[in-house]
Specification:
The chain is an alpha/beta fold and about 80 residues long. The protein contains 4 helices and 3 strands. The protein has a 3-stranded parallel sheet with strand order 1-3-2. The longest helix is centred in the middle third of the chain and has 9 residues. The protein is globular, with a radius of gyration of 12 Å.
């Protein structure tokens, strides 16, 4: 599935994890960047991946493709492609 709308319920829930209160309530957090995602996977903390279509990261967890607009919306990194 490709998520293209920032109005999607799943994307809205993901965006909420940028706020500490929601991370504490859900006991979930976002990991960004290939290195940190890989480390989280090795430790067994990775539940699901949201990535751009051209991302080559393939791990044995549920993977979702997001549009660049959605990635810019959910990411806190400055290095998201413009």
């Amino acid at each position: 599935m490709i998520y293209t709308s920032i109005e999607n319920i799943k994307i809205k829930e993901l965006k909420k994890l940028n706020i500490k209160k929601y991370r504490d309530d859900s006991q979930l957090f976002i990991v960004e960047g290939e290195h940190l995602v890989t480390e989280a996977y090795k430790k067994g903390f990775l539940i699901e991946i949201f990535k751009l279509e051209n991302c080559d990261l393939n791990l044995d967890v549920k993977s979702n493709i997001v549009s660049l607009n959605v990635m810019k919306n959910i990411s806190t990194l400055d290095s998201v492609p413009k």
